[in-house]
Amino acid sequence: MYRGPDSLVVFFGKQEVERYRYLGSWVERLHGLVIVLDRDGQSILTLYKNREGLRRAGRKRVALF
I need a labelling partner for 54 at 20 to 30 A (CA). Which of 7, 8, 25, 48 fits? Predict the structure, then answer.
């Protein structure tokens, strides 16, 4: 989980897949899911898949702003 200036970014990576695998095989489909929430974490702004991880997402964010 990372805080941006106006958002909260949650990433569902390999570690989370391993941690929640007991819930069922469907959890593997969540690998790479990035959820961007508003500052309070109450509303979803956007979500997308990025299996390369947050390091890659961070570079994209820096390049855009």
Answer: 25
